[in-house]
Design brief:
By secondary structure, the protein is α/β, with parallel strands linked by helices. The protein is 36% helix and 18% strand. The structure holds pyridoxal-5'-phosphate (PLP). Residues 44, 101-103, 106, 129-131, 188, 192-193, 221, 223-224, 249 line the site of pyridoxal-5'-phosphate (PLP). The site of pyridoxal-5'-phosphate has 15 residues, from helix 4.
């Protein structure tokens, strides 16, 4: 076993799954032995434009030649224009704070929520991931929360919305914890890596009422579900949710530059007209990130994008129906270009690699999130390969 001079993430180093990469092209990584690996989960859900998308690369290159670095204090046209584009995509009045990752977006959302409300408890779902930094990890409910001595006394786990469609158990929890201590609830609008679950419409409606009644903020984590992934610009646009803060990252730049953002309401931004916003980072509103984000927004708001997206979604829906029939599959959930396939046993990563497919395997589950730039015919053929792998398992 070769001992590398760097760590691989979320794994014991001796058991780490690895892919040898020489380069990448379109929706594929190219391995050292010249094979293609089709990126069926858009890597970690960020590479929604594949690996060599000209509009994003050109935007970054152009920016590199004009203003590659900026002071956080910098005022320049791109910062203003790209932010206006993002605000119009969100379609709610407010202001944007920039970061360089999803975790930092959540981290700053927690800071702002606590500062604004003067309260410290945050309600969160058990089945969730919000990022690897200590604050984001403290509200994360999955296995990654363990062993990190997060401030657990400031997080309260809500009854899962799927089991509590009218949020009755949620209200009981609020009363038990004490509304005067609750700063916010933080939720992935669509749980991403933990299985593509949302909440019933009735739950979201009840949440709006509870927020008003008990005066806490709604923080939406749209790090996976943002920028078109679910068939709307943002996941919350499927429901009538009234968020106070929205966390974004990943597809915001297609993964070409580490970048993130959070949106706050106008009401919150007004507070900071006079109160010190004690949040910031060296690479705040990085020009290369802004340039890539602007190209991403232009792309996902184009007519061509919508047509290709619908065609890709149809292929995913067809595959969902076929996969659901297999005896090795216990459930399939899909929204837009995001699909979870629950299996009865843990699938073997190598089986997919043999078929030139790189797919996210989370426990006994596949998460499929194809690049938007893939052709429908290619997606169909890759999903057939997935079907055949799972069918073979079925027959063994
Ligand atoms: C829903 C969600 N929120 C936040 C994060 C953290 O993002 P990052 O890894 O960019 O810090 C992730 C990462 O997978 C995520 O899936």
């Amino acid at each position: 076993m070769k001992n590398y001079p760097f760590y691989l993430t979320w794994t014991a180093q001796n058991n780490a799954l690895k892919i040898d990469i020489k380069g990448s092209k379109g929706p594929c990584y190219i391995t050292n032995d010249g094979r293609k690996l089709y990126d069926l989960s858009s890597t970690s859900y960020q590479a929604a434009f594949g690996h060599s998308y000209k509009p994003i690369k050109d935007a970054i290159k152009k920016q590199l030649n004009t203003l590659p670095i900026s002071s956080p204090k910098g005022i320049f046209d791109l910062k203003e224009d790209a932010t206006k584009k993002l605000l119009s995509l969100i379609n709610l009045p407010g202001k944007i704070f920039y970061t360089t990752s999803g975790a930092e977006s959540v981290e700053n959302a927690l800071k702002i929520a606590r500062q604004i409300t003067g309260k410290n408890i945050v309600l969160a779902r058990e089945n969730s991931y919000h990022g690897a930094t200590l604050g984001a990890l403290s509200i994360t409910g999955d296995w990654r929360n363990k062993d990190h001595q997060t401030v657990s006394k400031w997080t309260k786990r809500i009854p899962d919305p799927i089991d509590d469609p009218k949020a009755i158990a949620l209200e009981k929890l609020i009363l038990k914890v004490g509304a005067e201590k609750i700063a916010a609830i933080c939720l992935e609008t669509f749980v991403g890596g933990n299985g593509v679950f949302s909440a019933p419409k009735s739950w979201w409606n009840a949440l709006n009422k509870l927020k008003k009644k008990y005066n806490f903020l709604i923080i939406l984590d749209e790090v996976v579900s943002g920028f078109g992934r679910t068939g709307k610009a943002f996941g919350f646009q499927h429901f009538s949710i009234r968020p106070d803060i929205i966390c974004m990252a990943k597809i915001i730049t297609g993964g070409y530059i580490p970048f993130g953002a959070l949106w706050t309401t106008k009401k919150i931004s007004k507070v900071y007209d006079t109160k010190v916003l004690s949040c910031g980072l060296t690479n705040y509103a990085h020009p290369l990130g802004l340039a890539a984000m602007s190209a991403v927004i232009d792309d996902i708001t184009s007519d061509q994008f919508k047509i290709n997206f619908s065609n890709l979604e149809l292929k995913l829906i067809e595959a969902k129906d076929k996969l659901s029939q297999l005896s090795t599959v216990s459930d399939v959930r899909q929204v837009g270009l995001l699909m979870a396939v629950d299996l009865k046993t843990k699938p073997a990563f190598e089986k997919f690699i043999e078929q030139e497919i790189l797919v996210a395997i989370v426990g006994q589950r596949l998460i499929i999130a194809p690049p938007y730039t893939m052709t429908p015919a290619k997606l169909k053929s890759l999903l057939n390969r997935v079907y055949n792998i799972l069918k073979e398992k079925d027959e063994n």
